[in-house]
Amino acid sequence: MRRQYFLGIDLGSSSVKASLVDAETGKCATTTFYPEHEAPIIAVKSGWAEQDTDMWWENCKLCIKKVKEMANASAEDIKAIGISYQMHGLVCVDKDMKALRPAIIWCDSRAVPYGERAFNDLGADRCLGHLLNSPGNFTAAKLAWVKENEPELFSKIYKFMLPGDFIAMKLSGTINTTASGLSEGILWDFKERKTADFVLDYYGIDRKLVADIVPTFSVQCEVSAEAAAETGLQEGTPISYRAGDQPNNALSLNVFNPGEIASTAGTSGVVYGVLGKVAYDKKSRVNTFAHVNYTAETDRLGVLLCINGTGILNAWIRRNIAPEGISYTEMNDMAANVAIGSEGVSVIPFGNGAERVLENRETGCSVNGLNFNKHTKAHIIRAAQEGIVFSFCYGMEIMEKMGMDIRKIHAGRANMFLSHVFRNTLAGVSGAQIELYETDGSVGAAKGAGMGCGYYKDNNEAFTSLEKLAVINPDENLRSEYLEAYAEWKEKLEKML
Length: 497
Known about the structure:
With 497 residues, this protein is an alpha+beta fold. The chain has helices at 53-71, 112-122, 124-131, 139-149, 151-155, 163-172, 179-184, 197-203, 225-231, 245-252, 311-320, 328-336, 377-401, 420-430, 441-452, 459-462, 479-496; strands at 5-11, 16-22, 28-34, 50-51, 78-85, 91-93, 103-104, 159-161, 176-177, 188-189, 194-195, 212-213, 217-222, 238-244, 260-265, 269-275, 287-290, 301-307, 346-348, 366-368, 408-412, 433-437, 468-472.
């Protein structure tokens, strides 16, 4: 009997990744990504960031072809498709479903003034009370920029959408989106539980430009004959799940319920927690979106804390401070030989642009307390890792004030979570248990597809195969030392603000 698979596609800004998950075992059968080197980002002006949507589609097709070959899977073996994608982007298409311009992606900052104006004009109470966010630099504000600066092109728009909606459209010939997707574009009204018409009215955007809304877990559309011919998939294969990369990362770690936390610490760092009630940060230092299991009846909100200066700091230390040629593992060992608190050295890690958690201030990275007579490279390495953890904890305090009870952190065993210093410090300061798993976004999207098409009855069934690799509990004997080091770091940070 042939194996049955779910296909997960993860559209990132660096590459497209695809995985086939064995439906019966829940294990990843094969995975691949394109391109081999980082995909180009077009920067016509400073602060702009765009990508060619045709490039996304070509890389998708290459991934689909490759994973099928690697698993020796036929078109009929793939039973459903799930999509994860880079959040907050903007794709505009005409009536023929052709992209009218390159996608404006998440790290493009041209729409910042448009979001700020809307926040001031509409009022903080209305925006935060209904949208749970400032319109900021998200999809709605980006579309407002297009309307004002490219009016001829704007007049040709049939629908606007997020990057994941575009891939679903290319696969199916159907245009739709989700409530979770609209919320990340700051176009979902959490009070009214519908499209935020007052934001559309403010920007002068016709409601007909908004795609139809479908549930996150459902047969949203099906592979068209045209796409089947292009991809080698079977016509009629359901596309049954889609979500932005951060909600999807939480899903891939089986984070669905209030109080559960998903964390990543790559170039930048993310803490993503689930709330069971509508809440927001009055200073908009963290973002709140509809989680994958948000419904009209049940509030499940994803609170997103993003720290820009995490793994990028660790990489900078390796290139410029650590002994030449040293591995990250060796760096972690050096750091472990230094006492908690790095003997008075502290690093403020915010050297990768303005930080939302600091109310969009740009403090830069700084090293404090350095003594030339007693401190070594090892102290700086440890202080950098502690500084990254402390920045996470600083943001988590905001999340706790919103009502989140942080007891358990789920993370993939990758990047900064490979460091025992990083893990133990995070557990020690937060008091939370850390669980490490083997998973990734494309595997999560595949399992989401299995839930959306009804093969799995719920997330618990879908993630029975999720392998727990390690559990890190807070060391209560060292808790006071960790908290003291964090308090000293926090004091230095607050003097800078």
